[in-house]
Amino acid sequence: MSYGYTTDPELDRSTNRIMVVGAVLLLAMAAAFPIYLSYEPSAREDARAEQLVSLAHEGASIWAFNCASCHGDDGEGITAPALNAKEFLQSATNEQIQLLVSVGIPGSAMGAYSQDFGGPLTSEQIKAVATYLRSLEETAPSVPNWRNP
User: Fold this and answer.
1) Alpha carbon distance 120, 66 (integer Å)
2) CA 145, CA 87: separation in Å to the nearest integer?
3) What is d(CA 50, CA 122) in angstroms, rounded to the nearest whole number?
4) CB 64, CB 88: distance < 8 Å
5) Cα(first)–Cα(last) distance of the chain, in Å?
6) What are the structural domain ranges in the chain?
7) Cα(68)–Cα(57) distance, rounded to whole angstroms?
8) DSSP for 22-78, written as a single string
9) Looking at the DSSP assignment, which residues form a beta bridge with residue 121?
10) Least packed by Cβ within 10 Å: which of 22, 66, 92, 128?
């Protein structure tokens, strides 16, 4: 029973071709997702490593300008504690280092460096300094009395 409609064979072929192309594209995308899922974690890990290197490099510049005069060029301690000491770096977390830099140490020459507490550094710059210090950990010397320069 035709209901009075006529069919156009060329339109049917064109519609069928478009549906086949759509089905092929759908299958291709479905196959691409597992490949992407296997690639993505390593790409993110590489990006994190690159970010840490970049942050440590920035932190080294900030260190040279703000911290080296008291803590030494390599954190060996001049008039302030040696922060590249294995003992300090193994006992302090990144958050603790950031907090010490941010708010300073009351009763000492170590003032607050965070803009939130009247200092010159942003929270990202403070994170960069902590990352720089953390980058020294692998080659840090053992300095048992790191607190006393």
Assistant:
1) 9
2) 9
3) 21
4) no
5) 99
6) 9-139
7) 15
8) HHHHHHHHHHHHHHHHHHHHHHHHHHHHHHHHHHHHHHHHHHHHHTHHHH-TTS--S
9) 114
10) 22
- Tokens at 34, concatenated: 């597992």
pTM, full prediction: 0.72
In single-letter form, the type of residue at position 118 comes to G
Residue 101 corresponds to which tokens in the numbers above? 């830099």
Q: Is 129 helix (H, G, I), strand (E, B) or coil?
A: helix
> How far is residue 108's CA from residue 91's CA, in Å, rounded to a whole number?
21
- For residue 111 the two structure tokens come to 């003032």
Note the pLDDT tens digit of each residue in 40-66: 888 888 899 999 999 999 999 999 999
> Is 9-139 in CATH node 1.10.760.10?
yes
How confident is the model over 95-106, as a mean pLDDT?
Answer: 95
